[in-house]
Design a protein that fits this description.
- This protein is mainly beta.
Length: 188
């Protein structure tokens, strides 16, 4: 009887340890406040590879979003911005490369009552550009989202970039290409 109880205890401990894989890889809170506009608070969590996004506007909970996939469950950064200057912030969740899946992003816009996903021209991270060799990074800069990446055969201080503008389409908000180029960083 003692062996059987010990076995049950070991199996239960193993199952509980297996459940820990579903713990949040990432849990973050951020706020967005602009003079003369409502205050927003956001919560971003990733459990396993599933993203859970919720928001509050002036303390009132908005309809959230869940079920988006974050490959590997690794969030690199989260930013709130108002790229289209409409007084309603967007949240950009940048995720890291995982299991051969290149880095990418998920984007959400929140209004008075709910939040919705923002489409991205070319797919989850903006598609595979010409001469793409990985090393993606994303950031919001002024009224644009900027994606930088390594170009094949380029020097270590050189990176290509694509800028995206937030536009309203018949399908809702969409990050659309607004320019591309090359940056060169020199060391002194």
């Amino acid at each position: 009887m003692m062996k059987r109880s010990l076995y049950v205890l070991i199996v239960a401990a193993g199952l509980l340890a297996g459940c820990k894989k579903q713990d949040a890889f990432y849990k973050g809170e951020l706020t967005y406040e602009k003079v003369g506009a409502p205050k927003y608070a956001f919560s971003v969590q990733v459990r396993g590879e599933e993203l859970f996004f919720s928001a509050r506007r002036e303390g009132v909970e908005l309809t959230g979003i869940s079920g988006n996939r974050v490959p590997g469950g690794k969030v690199a950064a989260v930013e709130a911005a108002d790229l289209n200057s409409d007084g309603k912030p967007e949240v950009y969740v940048f995720f890291a490369e995982a299991s051969g899946v290149p880095p990418g992003l998920l984007a959400f816009s929140c209004g008075e009552k709910d939040c919705s996903s923002i489409g991205i021209e070319g797919g989850a991270g903006g598609g595979m550009p010409k001469d793409y060799c990985g090393g993606d990074s994303y950031k919001t800069e002024h009224d644009r989202l900027v994606r930088q990446y390594k170009g094949c055969g380029m020097g270590s201080g050189e990176r290509l970039y694509i800028k995206y503008a937030l536009k309203t389409t018949s399908f809702g908000l969409m990050l659309s290409k607004a320019g591309e180029g090359k940056t060169v960083t020199t060391r002194i």
